[in-house]
Amino acid sequence: MTTSKTKHTFRAFKNRNYALFFCGQSVSQIGTWMQRTAVSWVVYSMTHSSLMLGFAMFAQQFPSFLLSLFGGIVSDRYSRYKILLVTQTASLVQAALLAALILIGHYTVWEILFLSIILGVINAFDVPARQPMVHEMVSDKEDLPNALALNSAMVNLAFLIGPALSGIVLQRFGAGICFLSNAVSFMAVITSLLLMKLPPFNPPAIKKKVIAELVEGFNYLKHTPSIGNIILILAISGLFVLSFGTLLPVFAKDIFKGNAATFGYINSFMGLGAICGTFFLASLKKGTDLKIILLCSSITLGAGLILFSHTSYLPVAMLFATITGVGTMSQNTVCITIIQVESAAAMRGKMMSYVALAYFGMLPLGSLLIGAVSQKIGAANTMLGEGIVSLIIAAVFFKFLRKDKMNEAHIEELTEAEEMAMEKI
Question: pTM (2 decimals)?
Answer without folding.
Answer: 0.72
